[in-house]
Write a structure and sequence with these properties.
Blueprint lengths: L8 E4 L3 H12 L5 E3 L21 H5 L3 H14 L4 E3 L2 E7 L2 E6 L2 E6 L2 E4 L3 E3 L12 E3 H11 L6 E7 L1 H12 L3 E7 L7 H7 L3 H16 L3 E3 L3 E8 L3 E8 L5 E5 L2 E6 L1 E3 L2 H5 L4 E4 L4 E4 L12 E3 L8 H19 L3 H31 L15 E3 L4 E2 H11 L4 H8 L12 H12 L23 H4 L1
Parallel strand pairs: 1-2, 1-7, 2-3, 7-20, 9-16, 10-11, 10-16, 11-12
Antiparallel strand pairs: 4-5, 5-6, 8-17, 13-14, 14-15, 18-19, 21-22
Helix pairs in contact: 1-3, 1-9, 4-5, 5-7, 6-10, 9-10, 11-13
Amino acid sequence: MSAPSAPRVVVVGAGPAGVRAAQALVEAGLRPVVIDEGRRDGGQIYRRQPEGFTRGYAKLYGSEAPKAEALHRDFDALRGKVDYRSETLAWNLTPGELHTVRAGEPQVLPFDALLVCSGATDRLAPVNGWHRAGCYSLGAAQIALKAQACAIGSKVVFLGSGPLLYLVAAQYVQAGAQVAAVLDTAPARPPLAALAGLLARPRLALRGLQLIRQLRRAGVALRKGVRPLEILGSDEHGVAGVSVFDAHGDVQRFDCDAVGLGWHLRAETQLADLARCEFAFEPTSRQWLPRLDEDGRSSTPGVYLAGDGARILGADGAEAAGRLAALAALSDLGHAPGRALYQSQHADLRRTLATMDRFRRGLALAFPWPQAQFAGLPDQAVVCRCEAVTAGELRRCVDQTGSREVNRAKAFSRVGMGRCQGRYCGHAAAEIIAHACRLPVEDVGRLRAQAPVKPLPMDTREVLS
Ligand SMILES: Cc1cc2nc3c(=O)[nH]c(=O)nc-3n(C[C@H](O)[C@H](O)[C@H](O)COP(=O)(O)OP(=O)(O)OC[C@H]3O[C@@H](n4cnc5c(N)ncnc54)[C@H](O)[C@@H]3O)c2cc1C
């Protein structure tokens, strides 16, 4: 147990960033609270299989098996030294207090420092027909495989862009699933600036090329520079295929019974938003990100952000960022052992993170968000799947109500008001509104997060009263 005067530090997330943050806090003599809504630790990439499943590390994590094993082993060793609360959702944040709920039981946790290591989710762009049964995000397709050892369909097309597109497709091939095609909206030749960024981590870039070779060897149709037309099928029977314009402008159709969609990742920033952290628009990735200093300090004193929830740096970057943010928090709190660790380690950690950030920018340029796609989205295409709001309704909202800002358009159309709270449709809705207003996307703002950040059980009366 730490002394009664020890600072109260809470970590949200038990992925690579959260585990390394907790480890640094324990090394400095603290007993932090670690909250995670998941059943087991490991986060997204190093997701642990459910108890009772016995697949080995090499099978589950491939080339990343040693890192996954190390993270799990280190967290197991921390178990008695942290107050770990699994299956606990951090659903709200008020100054100095984190609001959580576990199995319907609410709890308010006061903190002196909060480390938000909340990870990322898929970044999705709507395609006409993507509301049909059989259409999943890439992440969901991967989780089905990792957690439950099953594929999303018997013949799958992967459509989108980014490293996860190729990785998940290769994992499906390895698992024996039939992959009909991998359709990438990124141009075949990335700009030079992208290559410069990708060379910051040459081994990782090489691994990407190996995945492509592996897919080619397996006979998977690979197309770059495509423009999605439609997820074919019917509302009654679900997905039957995908049609796209290829790089030459010809229409191509690929039959399948399931589609995995995704355009790289987006940071989970709702808690940062509720903490009133300042955000800035980043043109390279065309998204709003919390303002941070080199160590992960947000603009709100006492709130630190690390890992993919702050910047999509990948798992290695998340581990370094989690440790650095934890040490920065201790140093700011005047905690002597923590400050000593910070002073001896921050320079190396910052250097590591700078390299990871160059790579992140390279990826964003090589696999760009398909901004041109939104102008051509037909009016009947669903944008917000939770509330069934179409592109046409959003355009009418701009024309008829003069909504030139996303939160106003949300009030009139209900876009982003459903279960996902705009996490999956928010970026696309902003693009459609901006195009309809003829404004740059940064000028129509961003959807503000609201509590609860994720759906709560209905019987949590104390929380809602
Ligand atoms: C769907 C998906 C699949 C990916 N697959 C790969 C892959 O195969 N290979 C690869 O190299 N990279 C992959 N990535 C990227 C990789 O997962 C991340 O780079 C890495 O996991 C980042 O670590 P992190 O600790 O920042 O976040 P995460 O590992 O995502 O951990 C965040 C943790 O925070 C918890 N959390 C979030 N919000 C709350 C809340 N409000 N309350 C309580 N708990 C909360 C989550 O349950 C989660 O356990 C994937 C990312 C995603 C989103």
